[in-house]
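Worked problem 6 (solution included).
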Amino acid sequence: MLAERPIAFIALVAICSLGPISGRLMLDYLDGLCAALLARNGTEIRRLLRHPLARALPRRVREEGYAIARAGPESLRAPVHTLHFYHQTLHLLGARTAVARADAPSVERSGSEGRQIEMPLRAAGG
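Solution. The predicted structure is:
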């Protein structure tokens, strides 16, 4: 079943199964990589692609990073694959933490935090 899935999907599943701390580290890493790619900072891109977390990136993301680093700051190439991978990872990790929060027992809130604002309803057009 997993063999039929694209490599990027398998990489995302592996990242999401690492746990909340590792998932947060990966998001921070991807955020830094996206910032370096958008700034076209070749030195920072190469440094980030040598980081151990880069092994979890899909091949096309790594290749895109090296291509942008080689092209230099004058290049107009956009890091489309990296931004897409970042968005997918953010979405999957965010969905996973939302499910974890929903499964967690609710804590009673005290004071004004637990209250809902009541707003009077009025007839439409009036």
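Discussion: The chain has one domain: 2-101.
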